[in-house]
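// run 5 | inverse folding | seed 20
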């Protein structure tokens, strides 16, 4: 069985301090959630303004008090702009005897409570390290066994990248397609001296992994937003079909208006999510610049004897896949917004036309009924209206069929036709002005 001297886990956890549109109450609640990862009664600084890098505790490293007395370590909480970062370091404090790789399971159980996710967690990186004097086994096989022991995974993990830090072998184990997967770094040192020198890089790792996790978190947020946008689009299209077929299905005008209001609300959500999609791209843009800047600083600090080119693979992935995908999605969804807006304007005109037609039909019905009701009052049994119009002496006025019925009804029909034509003309002008 493989063994390592001074097996150590450094767990880097990142939680959001101030998500988008968070108010003071939410920010205070987020601080409490982050504090729950630490021992009780720990006082943390709570600056009102964001700061690039700030140690939150005094002393900056708080002692870890493990149940297993072979172990020791510390907590190191920091604030990185809008994100809380926490390093939990735990190791077998024995520099003279090699330890079984099973020690990683014992170490993990000590920090398990603090490692539990909360809804604000954007990512975790497990950094496993130790030094080996076994020159017969290659460092990569030891790194794989360390990973399998920690995560109780019998399958062979994929090495995403490998290089050298000082004179140590360093490996990155990660599955890009899985946001929930564990991001792990394994460093196999050749001796204690190199391990001690590498401890100077912990604050650098803290910043680098933060930018990395914010990029992956923003990208996977964008995937959820895209799915929501597609769902919004489908709902608008489905409701549009209902409105278009309203005459066949004889939907009431009130129900039509309700469906249209629902469509308008969905369109508002679509617009907001489209803005959120662009916001995720901005997050990736900013953090990609920060990631590359921090990596360059680490490479300069490590010197020419180190080779950390594999860490730049992630920045290429973020630029060529993550950003390119979001830009393409944003363009497509922006086109979808224009199509939806055009569709909604057409639906609005259709509902107005439907309403006008129904109003016209109702008004015609009222006119006919009114005419029928008025007919009994219009009939001139004595021919008085006829005499008033064409003269007392006209013999037609004495004829009930002509003077008492035809002439009064004729006048009524002429007036009714003028009223109906006026209403039709008014509606036509109104509809043309809305188009």
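// decoded
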């Amino acid at each position: 069985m493989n063994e390592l001297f001074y097996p150590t886990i450094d767990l880097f956890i990142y939680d959001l301090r101030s998500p988008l549109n968070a108010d003071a109450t939410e920010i205070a609640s987020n601080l409490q959630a982050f504090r729950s990862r630490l021992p009780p009664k720990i006082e943390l600084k709570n600056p009102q303004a964001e700061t690039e890098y700030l140690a939150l505790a005094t002393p900056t490293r708080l002692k870890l008090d493990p149940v297993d007395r072979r172990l020791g370590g510390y907590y190191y909480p920091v604030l990185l702009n809008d994100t809380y970062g926490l390093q939990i370091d735990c190791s077998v404090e024995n520099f003279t005897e090699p330890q079984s790789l099973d020690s990683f399971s014992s170490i993990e159980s000590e920090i398990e409570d603090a490692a539990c996710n909360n809804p604000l967690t954007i990512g975790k990186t497990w950094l496993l390290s130790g030094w080996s004097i076994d020159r017969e086994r290659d460092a990569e096989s030891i790194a794989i066994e360390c990973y399998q022991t920690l995560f109780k995974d019998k399958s062979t993990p994929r090495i995403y990248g490998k290089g050298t830090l000082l004179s140590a072998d360093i490996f990155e184990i990660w599955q890009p397609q899985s946001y929930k997967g564990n991001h792990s770094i394994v460093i196999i040192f050749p001796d204690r001296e190199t391990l001690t020198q590498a401890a100077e890089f912990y604050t650098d790792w803290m910043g680098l992994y933060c930018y990395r996790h914010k990029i992956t978190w923003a990208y996977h947020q964008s995937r959820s937003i895209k799915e929501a946008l597609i769902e919004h689009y489908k709902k608008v299209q489905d409701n549009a079909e209902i409105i278009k077929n309203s005459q066949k299905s004889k939907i009431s005008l009130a129900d039509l208006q309700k469906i249209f209001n629902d469509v308008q609300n969905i369109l508002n959500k679509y617009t907001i999510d489209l803005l959120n999609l662009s916001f995720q791209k901005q997050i990736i843009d900013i953090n990609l610049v920060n990631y590359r800047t921090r990596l360059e600083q680490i490479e300069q600090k490590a010197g020419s004897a180190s080779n950390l080119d594999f860490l730049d693979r992630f920045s290429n992935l973020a630029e060529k896949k993550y950003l390119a995908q979001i830009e393409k999605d944003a363009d497509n969804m922006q086109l979808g917004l224009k199509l939806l807006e055009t569709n909604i304007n057409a639906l609005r005109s259709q509902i107005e036309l439907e309403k006008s037609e129904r109003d016209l039909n109702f008004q015609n019905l009222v006119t006919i009924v009114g005419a029928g009701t008025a007919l009994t009052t219009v009939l001139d049994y004595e021919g008085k209206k006829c005499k008033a119009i064409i003269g007392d002496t006209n013999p037609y006025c004495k004829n009930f069929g002509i003077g008492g019925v035809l002439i009064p009804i004729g006048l009524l029909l002429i007036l009714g036709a003028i009223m109906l034509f006026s209403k039709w003309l008014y509606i036509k002008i109104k509809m043309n002005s809305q188009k």
